[in-house]
Design goal:
With 124 residues, the chain is mainly α. The chain contains six helices and two strands, in the order ααβαβααα. The chain has two domains: 77 residues, 3-Layer(aba) Sandwich (Rossmann fold); 46 residues, no CATH class.
């Protein structure tokens, strides 16, 4: 299991969810490095979220190897709704109760235009 490489929004502490942000130079370097470390491992397939950041990470890890890649909607991150693209500090300021629930009591989290953790689990 591999997470996508570092993105611009990761460095800006922005929520991504279904919206996308490009990999940083560091994120690309890390994906290439991981691909090099895995080159002796015989992979028969790669499964990836269809988000651009995960597609790019997948391409860099796979490199020139002939490994089939399957993009699966069920691997997408949670839909963060109105929070997507906003910084953590702004979300915490605007939605303090929801922010607290998201991080500390996820079973109580109620999204604003997104999906709950339970809905994310049910859709996969």
């Amino acid at each position: 299991m591999v997470r996508h490489g570092e993105t611009v929004w990761n460095t800006e502490k922005r929520m991504q969810g279904w919206l996308d942000s490009q990999l940083t130079e560091n994120g690309e370097k890390n994906a290439v490095s991981l691909g090099n470390r895995l080159k002796e491992i015989e992979l028969t397939a790669i499964y990836s979220s269809p988000s651009d950041r995960t597609k790019r990470t997948t391409q860099l890890i796979r490199g020139v190897r002939d490994i089939p890649v399957y993009y699966d909607e069920n691997l997408k991150e949670i839909n963060m709704g109105d929070w997507e693209g906003k910084t953590l500090s702004l979300i915490k300021e605007m939605y303090p109760l929801e922010f607290e629930s998201f991080w500390n009591t996820p079973h109580l989290y109620t999204p604003l235009g997104g999906e709950t953790f339970e809905e994310t689990r049910e859709s996969s």
